[in-house]
Write a structure and sequence with these properties.
alpha/beta; Aspartate Aminotransferase, domain 1; Aspartate Aminotransferase, domain 2; 2 domains; 3-stranded antiparallel sheet; globular; binds pyridoxal-5'-phosphate
């Protein structure tokens, strides 16, 4: 008898963009200059302060397990950060350090979700969300969203789509792939709607800090019963250090302690010391300077995509993505992305990686490349469209 792969794996698929990435690598091996606008991580390196702090920790040789919830001084630094940036008081006991936002999701869903339950989320959204739920035998309940709702769920949609097995609602703002932000009032109403139904509200705030227009609100400003998922990956430019955090309601602290011990033991120690160095005034000033560069890139890309005939019906206000409507050129955006890569060596992500709603006429452009590189990519794109 041969061992069998678990049934759940039939419901978990690879990203379509992986096929494009593989092809991009081949083209690069053949000497082509591929411009990467598919990548969901900052092109900036980790800051010097972070690198030095990580190195100092490793050099002590004391790279041992930490407490499962994380270094007390890092939890305190995050609590202070909430006070400084959002004027919100959060007790450090509610903050759990995790291996990325991915680890935070696994922890949050593990302590709050039962098999057969469903979490409501927007279509389009970050594709792994559903799979974090599937690990626990639960599932996603997708609700299509449009430009009128800034591609975000809101109280009306939540009320309309709530089902007997809906256990909670996940909102990511700024969103991946649309870069759109939920307005403070809409966020507050969405939380209230979920709480009235006895559900859990999960707020994915991983792109906070990379927001470009009006000040953004954390869900913690409106309720202390929400789960907030965050990360050092994006604004803090620490993707590969694998470190993030989860804020839980008081009643879930003990459960989070137990599960964190069991599934992670703790998050990488040098990454925790490195992350701690993020909160100095100089380091935050450097991160804000980078944020301003992302904003310039957003404006540059937005204006140029409109000029080329793409439609962007809701200007993104955060993250580093632009979710463009390419229906003027194709109704098969995956094929479009493949052809663009072959013809002009520009890599982008097709809408089908983020759901099914309007997915065949959407492309995600990541502005994780400099304006100079994007200018070349846009020239190539123009040539491709004029073929
Ligand atoms: C919306 C969203 N949530 C969560 C994650 C997971 O990030 P990480 O595990 O690196 O913190 C990502 C990564 O791209 C994302 O885009």
């Amino acid at each position: 008898m041969t061992a069998r792969i678990a049934d759940r794996m039939q419901t978990i698929s690879s990203f379509y963009v992986m096929a494009l990435l593989q092809r991009a690598k081949q083209l690069e091996q053949q000497g082509r200059d591929v411009i990467h606008m598919e990548i969901g991580e900052p092109d900036f390196p980790s800051t010097q302060a972070v690198i030095e702090a990580g190195k100092r920790c490793i050099e002590t040789g004391e790279v041992k397990y930490t407490a499962p919830a994380g270094l007390p001084e890092l939890r305190q630094a995050i609590a202070d950060f909430y006070q400084q940036r959002y004027q919100v008081k959060v007790s450090p006991e509610r903050i759990f350090i995790t291996p990325g936002a991915s680890g935070a999701f696994l922890l949050a869903f593990g302590i709050s979700l039962n098999p057969e339950q469903a979490i409501m989320m927007a279509d389009p959204c970050y594709p792994c969300n559903e799979n974090f739920a599937r690990v626990y035998g639960a599932t996603a309940q997708y609700v299509p969203v449009n430009a009128e709702q800034a591609y975000q769920l809101n109280a009306d949609l939540i009320a309309e789509h709530w089902q007997a097995n809906t256990q909670g609602v996940l909102i990511a703002s700024p969103s991946n792939p649309t870069g759109t932000v939920i307005a403070a009032e809409a966020l507050q109403q969405a939380i209230a709607t979920v709480e009235q139904r006895g559900g859990c509200f999960y707020s994915d705030e991983i792109y906070h800090g990379l927001d470009y227009d009006q000040p953004i609100s954390t869900a913690l400003s409106f309720s202390d019963q929400v789960f907030v998922i965050n990360s050092f990956s994006k604004y803090f430019a620490m993707t590969g250090w694998r470190i993030g955090w989860l804020v839980v309601p008081d009643a879930f602290i003990e459960a989070a302690e137990k599960l964190a011990q069991n599934i992670f033991i703790s998050t990488a120690t040098h990454s925790q010391y490195a992350a701690l160095a993020s909160f100095s005034a100089e380091n935050l000033a450097e991160l804000d300077r980078r944020r301003d560069l992302f904003k310039q890139r957003r404006d540059f890309l937005y204006e140029n995509l409109l000029r080329l005939g793409f439609k962007v019906d809701c200007k993104p206000q955060g993250a580093f993505y632009l979710y463009a409507d390419c229906s003027a050129f194709t109704n098969d955006s995956f094929q479009f992305a493949k052809d663009l890569l072959e013809a002009e060596a520009v890599a982008v992500t097709p809408g089908i990686d983020f759901g099914t709603h309007q997915a065949n006429t959407r492309i995600r452009f990541a502005y994780t490349a400099s304006i100079d590189r994007m200018a070349i990519a846009l020239n190539r794109l123009e040539r491709f469209l004029c073929r």
